[in-house]
Amino acid sequence: MTVWIKICGITNEEDALAAARFGADALGFIFAPSPRRISPHKARKIIKALPPLVQTVGDFVDEDFGEVSSVAQMCGLDILQFHGSESADYCESFHRRVIKAVRLRDRQDLKGLAEYDGVVRALLLDTYVADKLGGTGITFNWQWAVEAGRYGRIILAGGLNSENVAAAITIVKPYGVDASSSLEHSPGVKDHEKMRQFIAKVRQAGSY
Questions:
Q1: FRET label pair with 133: which of 87, 106, 158, 166, CA 20 to 30 Å apart?
Q2: Buried b (16+ CB within 10 A) or exposed e, 47-61
Q3: Residue 155 Rama label (left phi>0; alpha psi -120 to 50; beta)
Q4: Beta partners for residue 125, in sequence order
Q5: Catalytic (active-site) positions
Q6: Phi, psi of 166, deg, nearest 5
Q7: Comparing C-alpha atoms, which of 169, 156, 160 is closest to residue 207?
Q8: Phi and psi at residue 41, in whole multiples of 5°?
Q9: 83 contact partners, CB below 8 Å, separation of at least 6
């Protein structure tokens, strides 16, 4: 299979179009407290400018059902991604494609993934850092991601860049990869050359 590539933390049209041009499969827009937070109105404008086959993902954290539904409809989001304590029932209630993000601090955290097996389309695994819900730029033990594969498709995140993503793909064989802070000049502003190199490395390594 070919590895799915998501570039997260998009805040402006220039970065979005560059990521699409370089071959990203999906772009992530953060609607929760973050240095990369974007308003629904701005996200909608960017999304309307994207090529037709680029998927759009909305990132939320413990948000009200009605607010998520409203933002998803307004922006035309393809996928919802939840980074908080959202239950499997909550994820399923949207009747949409959902990715559940889980931050791993140790191997014991894998036990909580069973709840989402068969409910969400994929599990995004990220590094646990206190007071940060993502965008840490720090890797975790990829062997845990290998073990997590028993619970469904795995999207690997956490400190991935052009130098380590090929090794990560070889070890984990994930459904997809997700990068954000490692591809930036500053929070919310992407380095286009880093994005280009990252996507190229995934494409070189990402078929198995």
A1: 166
A2: beebeeebbbbbbbb
A3: beta
A4: 102, 156
A5: 8, 126
A6: -65, -40
A7: 169
A8: -65, -45
A9: 32, 59, 60, 61, 101, 133, 134
